[in-house]
Amino acid sequence: MVTPFTDDGLLDLDGAQVLAERLVAEGCDGLVLSGTTGESPTTSDSEKAALVRAVAEAVGDRAAIVAGVGSFATRHTVETALQAEKAGADGLLVVTPYYSRPPQDAVEAHFLEVADASGLPIALYDIPGRTGTRIEPETMLRLAEHPRIVAVKDCAYDLMGTQKVLSRTDLAYYTGCDEYILAQYAVSGAGYISTVANVVPRQLRAVIDAFDAGDTAGARLLQQQAMELIELMMGSGLPGTVTAKALLGALGLPGGPVRAPLRPAGREATDGLLAAYEAMSRLSPTGADIC
Q1: Is 37 marked as a binding-site residue?
Q2: CA 224, 225, 230, 233: dihedral to nearest 10 degrees?
Q3: Per the record's keyword annotation, is Nucleotide-binding included, yes or no (predicted)?
Q4: Which residues are catalytic?
Q5: Is the Cβ–Cβ distance between 257 and 250 less than 8 Å?
Q6: Does the predicted TM-score (pTM) go above 0.85?
Q7: What strand order describes the sheet that includes 91-95?
Q8: Which stretches of the chain are assigned E, i.e. beta strand?
Q9: Which residues of the chain have pLDDT under 50?
Q10: pLDDT at 284
């Protein structure tokens, strides 16, 4: 979920509650707060905790709340994990320590220390394109032995490695790449943690629902119908946070500005995003034109 800000850049908790309510009503089983899309590098620890409390109040037990708590420092990650637990999070998303590029034994020790410190279940966040360090499959296999390490947000773009871990552990794999929703789900993935679902939650949920119902052709069509918007939001050269907030603003939904160093999308980019959104919205969850 994006983190809404007011026009003057302050945390918009009322807006966060509105967005959370909409996402749950449109089919989201859980909400990930303070992840990449939630601009976690630019929000303070107190803002992160306040966001968890506000969203928990809004959705109650209708959806799980997963708090992003990872940083490049193990001590700070533990502190924010305990803070999120106290604020009411149901689980933690812990990213690989970044910038310092620790070796695999240090990566493993980092995650184990966080898992030992908190009583909440943990999803490992594997996104080497941003962190500079992969959680290698062999490291994943060892980490899976910890009782509170239960899931992975997978942005490694390595389907071979993903399937290796899926075949040997009970870890729940959630793709963080919207173009892989159906592909990873079809090989025993658990679902997705999506940026694009900030604006089209119902349509992406329909991909999973169709597959679960045995309608693989329908699931394939729905994934294909989402691809223009996915490409514009995630592959156009603008960060997903920027494109998501541009579309939310165009739709009259809370989002507000991005925080520096990010910059807002321009008019041309926003118009293109809106056109793709409107084209996708003209289709029903089963792919039939409803105009």
Answers
A1: yes
A2: 160
A3: no
A4: 125, 153
A5: no
A6: yes
A7: 30-33, 64-68, 91-95, 122-126, 149-154, 172-175, 191-192
A8: 30-33, 64-68, 91-95, 122-126, 149-154, 172-175, 191-192
A9: 286-291
A10: 57
